[in-house]
Amino acid sequence: MSDTLVEVSDLVAHYGDTLVLDRVSCEVRRGEIFLIIGGSGCGKTTLLKHMTGLLSPTSGAIRFSGRDITQMDEDQLAEMQREIGIAFQSSGLINSLTVGDNVALPLREYGQASERLIDAMVRLKLSLVGMASAQHLMPSELSGGMRKRAGLARAIALDPPIVFFDEPSAGLDPIMASGLDDLILDLRKLLGITFVIVTHELDSIRKVADRILMLDRGNVIFIGTLSEAETSSVERTRQFFERRADEFITQRNV
Amino acid sequence: MTEHRLECPPSLDQETGRALLDQAHRLHPAKGDVLLLDFSNTGSMDSRGGAWMVAIAQELAHRHAELRWEGHQGEVANFIDLIEPGLETAETKHHREEGILEEIGGRAYKYAGEFWEFFNLVIDAIYWTIVGPLEGRGFRWGLWIDEVYEMGVRAVRINFLMNFLLGLIIAMLSAAQIAKFGLGIYVADAIIIGFTRELAAIMTAIVVSARTGAAITAELATMKVQEEIDALRGMGLNVAQFLIAPKILALLIVMPCLVALGMIAGILGGAVWGILAIGIRPENWFHETLLAASQGDIIQGMLKALCFAIMIVLVGCHNGLRVTGGSRGVGLMTTRAVVMDIFFIIVIDIIFATVVYYILDSSMTF
Q1: Pick from B94, B85, B362, B322: nearest CA to B216
Q2: Of A245-249, B84-88, B113-117, B266-270, minimum mean pLDDT range
Q3: Which of A96, B2, B94, B99 is most buried (most C-beta within 10 Å)?
């Protein structure tokens, strides 16, 4: 089995006329925690959405287990998406369903299991993210951290080999954010899940990263390990890890 | 190029800043001119004074002139350093004027894109409502029942009331004319023909578009904004199968029922006026109503109901899925969906009228 789970080659993406990703290439290896980092608006989430087939690129290829998802038809793409888990920045929980039903949703659709087994699996997945007691709550009754964990429970419902996580720490207090980082490390250890995580939280990056890809204005400016990133010769990367501001930071992204 | 010079006051604040802008304005700087602000005597400056300075920079940029400053020191210099990017980017955005052909082409491209999206949605909806379930690819019956209850059962009272009142109004208006000739009984004919052919279907469609159509758009738009649609797609679920097909089938069942109820309500509304105000005996009124009733008219109303049902769901879903931005986008798309619904209700009605009265050349006979 190949060591590479996801391979992105020369990915170019636009929003309208605006170039968002410019010839991005990278690979995600099995079992690693791969971080996509960069400043706000640099294209991190866009890259993640392309890697999961939620957006179609202008050009380039994205291979998942060797299959190019940009060449797949709708049914093939849906089949591929069943093999991955996605946890969204705003959790993406269906607000009209309970937390338990949200986690059960992919199990009911594809799990081919009895209701009793599905119920047990929902409890198991919620237990893994520390939310066993929230099964019957509605998403609107959850705090931000609980929503993220419930979203993660749904993402791992079908035991996918890889989970894409958009901004796990955003909007969370440091204790909750750290707890979520621990959870990611535990899930990798327990279930062998590969994680692709979009973030710009330095503490989280230092805690969980195996390898890092850094984007700046849609371009890859660094790929490597955490220690390589912290001693990188790339000025923008060093600036990021030293948490140094631009001279006029607010004007940079205008 | 002319250099204009303005001496800044000792304290640049809301009042003095405004006065400075007025002075700059009176200089009428032309293209290529330079306005030099002298801060030598200025010892303090607040954010409102700074804002007036940005306004001066904007004014000059608009006239293609340049703002410079000198003599700033101490806190004033620090403040100007801080707002300098605002002064540099003060140039108002110049939109290139589009030619008429460019504008027409741009709009045509935009609407063609929207039409293509709508077309794809229609194909998806047809597949997942009819073909998909027949191929054993599943249909969400649980959600369908919820939708039938929400779209149908909960709309019964308002739909009955609206049609009843409309029947009453039509009877009032008709009677005011016809009763003068002693032909008040024929108001019953006008009511049943009007309601079975047109009014029940249209009034019900308006009620449903305002209630259900708006709700569908708001629901889908909110789901899109909150990444729920992405989450469904990310799980390999088809949005048309999961959300749209149950709504279409639910409204296809519910709408004819509501229109039938609307017909009854409208006839009752007319009867109330005919019996109580015109003074026609109930048995005569209902006998005349039944005489004028036509199966063809009822079928015509029901066929319209089915077309309205499909249109309301598709327009609602289309607008909901096209939302961009946050809560404002949800509101805008919801408004757009209801406006489009009302427009298409009229369009569908015109098509029916043309087909039935001109192409088939008579009222429908079945």
Answers
A1: B322
A2: A245-249
A3: A96
